[in-house]
Amino acid sequence: xxxxxxxxxxxGENAENTWMCFVKKFDLxxxxxxxxVKIAVDSKYWLYVNGKRAVFEGGVKRGPSxxxxxxxxxxxxxxLKEGENKVAVLVWFFxxxxxxxxxxxxxxxxxxxxxxxxxxSSDGSWHVMKHPAYVSPDEYDVPANxxxxxxxxxxxxxxxxxxxxxxDYDTSLWDNxxxxxxxxxxxxxxxxxxxxxxxKDYGLKDYENSAEFAEFTTTKETILKMKLPYNAQVxxxxxxxxxxxxxxxxxxxxxxxxxxxTKSVMSVYYTKDGAQEYECLGWINGEYIYYTIPAGxxxxxxxxxxxGYDTEFAGSFECDDEFLxxxxxxxxxxxxxxxxxxxxxxxDRERVQWWGDVNVEMQMMMYCLDxxxxxxxRKGADSMAGWAEDSGHMLTVVPSGTEQFELPxxxxxxxxxxxxxxxxxxxxxxxxxxxxxxxxxxxxxxxNSDGLVEHRQGxxxxxxxxxxxxxxxxxxxxxxxxxxxCRKMAALLGYENDxxxxxxxxxxxxKNYDRIFLKEGYYYCSTKNKKxxxxxxxxxxxxxxxxxxxxxxxxxxLQSTENASPYMEKYVLDALxxxxxxxxxxxxxxxxxxxxxxxxxxxxxxxxxMDGTLNHAWSGGPLITMSKYIAxxxxxxxxxxxxxxxxxxxxxxxxxxxxxxxxxxxxLDIRKTGGHIKMDVIIxxxxxxxxxxPLEKNESMPSEGLTDGYAKFILTGGKHTxxx
Length: 724
Prior knowledge:
Blueprint: E1 6-9, E2 18-28, E3 35-42, E4 44-49, E5 52-58, E6 68-75, E7 83-93, E8 108-115, E9 118-121, E10 127-130, E11 153-156, E12 175-176, E13 178-182, E14 190-193, E15 200-206, E16 216-217, E17 222-242, E18 247-252, E19 256-257, E20 262-263, E21 267-270, E22 274-279, E23 284-293, E24 298-308, E25 316-319, H1 322-337, H2 355-365, H3 372-391, H4 408-425, H5 428-444, H6 471-493, H7 496-517, H8 534-543, H9 551-560, H10 566-578, H11 582-592, H12 594-598, H13 621-630, E26 633-635, E27 642-645, E28 654-661, E29 664-673, E30 676-694, E31 705-707, E32 710-723
Parallel strand pairs: 6-14, 11-21, 27-30
Antiparallel strand pairs: 1-13, 2-7, 2-10, 3-6, 3-8, 4-5, 4-7, 8-9, 10-12, 15-24, 16-24, 17-22, 17-23, 17-24, 18-21, 18-23, 19-20, 25-28, 26-27, 28-29, 29-30, 30-32, 31-32
Helix pairs in contact: 1-13, 2-4, 3-5, 4-5, 4-6, 5-6, 6-7, 6-8, 8-9, 8-10, 10-11, 10-13
């Protein structure tokens, strides 16, 4: 940053939920071809240039570490002109900590534009005004729950200052901004460039039932239930006529969390006299938006603006079973609604990056989203490493301005996930970032005299929701998988001396796992109901600790036991598929997800019942099952240099699947008709695929080999058709 660029604010205005307006005018001798802007705030901003909005909700919640703040970078040249120009910035200062945000304690704006070599930066010459229409909350309203740094928003239209960002709006009587400190100084700490793209603005749209309430006048207090096409992150809009002083509240169907008896965010609008329009800038989510409108208000138009993480739905899965199709699509929607500043557990109660959730979301995105989604995982890993460096150990929730949580089972799953991510992407930068904290975490564990890991409780004992968790075999399997991941990372990075450290611990667990936990063909230590646990046995399979000769006995456990919550259910499904029982994985999905799929809602629940949130990404594991195991598409070598297409029909007549691999789209279209099978595949250039063609009984065909009811082919880039 230029030495003259300063953090600015208005002294003394650091209360919770403060909205501040900033304006700067400057002259340009000609319209520029390039105008690179760096802008940072605590906490969010809306940028206008010459009266046109250039950014809708910029800024990323603090912070990449405990002592740093993200800045955005963008080009505003298309908004500038020869002569006088005006930049206006509305800043929302949360003014409080949350599970997903560490407040600096001081509202601030940092702005620097390099316009063909001329620097326009934030300093004391900027004009500033606290926006008077954002008012204190109604004392009778319930505040948003303590986990959220965002507050409920109250806007009094009678106190509005109009389009203050417009070119001809006079701000000459506003105060000059106060300088807080220089860049990379003060409460905001060092600056870090935003890793993820700016959020996607889908524009204002009509609700599915907007037409029903056009030119509608209320005669009594009325709640208008407005239908969204799916669960989305939205900012509600209204165009109305009313007398001054009417109170209108805006909430979503996800506002009430019945499990914890807490509330999400909502907004309140107080009317002025006459025609007026308003868009609440704080996003909420759900499938329905409720406008509570008092008597005497005429509704001209109700609309919404969807915003969200900027990625494309690049993958797909379709088959002749509508249940599976709906489950895949609900998993995708659930993933997308839990992406924004970070991967989230849920977009209503918490908006928090729990790393166990992130590990599932990362695996899902490999099969359905484009490359820009990878940046959100990279940002999360960067934050994890930054906070580990500051705190001295790996945490489970970052960034966080409240308690510092450590859930060891989630951390171990996350460490295992780092090498999984590399296998799919070849992105060595993430491995370089996370390896030091991963090594420290693994080596901080102690082994007991029995050769297994000493139990680590962390903030509280949490192996999973759901009853009858068999903690000891689960913990040792997770630890083994995480240690194996660290071994792979050490080899990749050239830390040869570290490999023996992991080998010693892995060998100790492998030597003693069966001795301690193996009972009558399955694994068991201790549960409340005195029976083996599906999760413990699934992890024994996935870790490789379970010998294949035990698979039949373990299958019996997985067929008869349903302890796993939707979070760990993904790993149970993985284990079934890894054992070669894809048919039963489909059967189990039908049983466990039946209520969620049949329920008229676009996303998946936190629990098997509806006690928690209706949108928890950890529930989307079946998306992976269908694309990775049923369609059978997965890498065999790093970053899909070689990969496998081995579909398991599971009683289906056709499967069509697209996987957006790092090297290009992989496409499978397989159909059974009249006793014959036709299989079309598209292989990205510069890759090699091992393609397995399912065969009917006693059928054979020319191929590189026949195995387990398949004919095997080695195919390279291009489109190929196989027929039997």
